[in-house]
Amino acid sequence: xxxxxxxxxxxxxxxxxxxxxxxxxxxxxxxxxxxxxxxxxxxxxxxxxxxxxxxxxxxxxxxxxxxxxxxxxxxxxxxxxxxxxxxxxxxxxxxxxxxxxxxxxxxxxxxxxxxxxxxxxxxxxxxxxxxxxxxxxxxxxxxxxxxxxxxxxxxxxxxxxxxxxxxxxxxxxxxxxxxxxxxxxxxxxxxxxxxxxxxxxxxxxxxxxxxxxxxxxxxxxxxxxxxxxxxxxxxxxxxxxxxxxxxxxxxxxxxxxxxxxxxxxxxxxxxxxxxxxxx
Length: 279
Hints:
alpha/beta, ten-stranded mixed beta sheet, 7 helices, 22% strand
């Protein structure tokens, strides 16, 4: 996978009983990353609404879907991993500035894998097929924004949640964004995910609805911060110790200037996946 910036591995002492290191992963980690993401998103509101079925069935579908999506976008994304004693326990999938939308060549190169991902989800149930086709093209909401990191997916293995791992993954990418003086953007359907990112200076920019009855979604934006202007204990700095509550303490933010919510129009094409985050 291409690397936008060669960031150093960031050590993190957590209550899980060891040192967690966050670094950029290569293609050899894709299968393990897909498995961690599947476990993380099995009860996520957006995927639960789209796929339905039992948690075990959703996990099986998501493993195949994430594997295909990661391979389909491998020329454009950076894959960030949180490692504990060499074991992958958290994953962040991000598009560096200028990599979204993918170039025409990257889109053609990854099209077969993205098609596999869509077919996997469509086979889950008839309801999944209908809801996939109804999904709006929310990926295009931020095309007019200034240069930024697109934080497409982030997930932590359920056994290691609320122990600072999600905060370490968020700190990794916001640190690179600040160093390059670019913003960060994401979409999510989770209240806890919103609280996590608010602690790093994100603000809700817009609210949307996939379809009638779907869980409410929101877009979040973060302006870059000058490097070295934050206190050492603030999120996003080079701190080495995270507390269990670090990922759930929201920061004060300005009210959004966008409308409180709107129904999104149907997309002209199906998406490779619903971009959400799960801590």
